[in-house]
Amino acid sequence: MIRLLLVDDDPLVRAGLSLMLGGAEDIEIVGEAADGAEVAAVVDRTHPDVVLMDIRMPAVDGLTATERLRARPDAPEVVVLTTFHADEQVLRALRAGAAGFVLKDTPPAEILAAVRRVAAGDPVLSPTVTRQLMEHAAGTAADRRKARARERIGALNDREREVAVAVGQGLSNAEIAAALFMSVATVKTHVSRVLAKLDLNNRVQIALLAYDAGLLEQSAEPEPDGH
């Protein structure tokens, strides 16, 4: 059973989500919050596995609430609710540790699928959407971000770096294992080491850091003939 917490300042949205998601056999709505300021207390009381978090709220927004929540030990996963898919705040929430996002007008079945995926440890973010977000956020800070990302990536050995790039390409553990000729267990070990070395808490953050460092652009370059 997936324990789900709903966070949105609109009571009608919360009621709709509760009705829509609470009917699933494998999901239990364990609590609701109307503002980011309430999230920590409700999490302590209800112990959710996943938090469905609105971005825009009047007192403490979903971005700040996500940052605070994901900085805690044993934090629940966070899925961001938003009305825009190319939004700087969404990107910041992902950098803060959200496992993905869904649009508020997403069909119910897809929101259910997103909650289930995140509860299972998989991000809800396609490489295409990651690129859209990154391109939206590109600007004067891009060079500084790239330099910082490359410095952090420098802590990885060659194999860990290859795995980080593959994660950034949206490959599953099984696909990475096949591409890099290693077992799935070894891939999981490398992913865990990458997370620990870079002080990250999920695969989405690995993907964003690899993108920031320019590694995904390099990996997309055509290979010479005969290879």
UniProtKB/TrEMBL annotation:
One GO term (biological process): regulation of DNA-templated transcription
Modification type 4-aspartylphosphate: residues: 54
InterPro entries in the record: CheY-like_superfamily, NreC/VraR/RcsB-like_REC, Sig_transdc_resp-reg_C-effctor, Sig_transdc_resp-reg_receiver, Tscrpt_reg_LuxR_C, WalR-like
Methyltransferase as UniProt keyword: no
Residue ranges constituting the HTH luxR-type domain according to the UniProt record: 149-214
Domain Response regulatory: residue ranges: 3-119
CDD domains: LuxR_C_like, REC_NarL-like
Highest taxon of source: Bacteria
Keywords: DNA-binding, Phosphoprotein, Transcription, Transcription regulation
GO molecular-function terms, A-Z: DNA binding
PROSITE patterns: HTH_LUXR_1, HTH_LUXR_2, RESPONSE_REGULATORY
Protein name: LuxR family transcriptional regulator
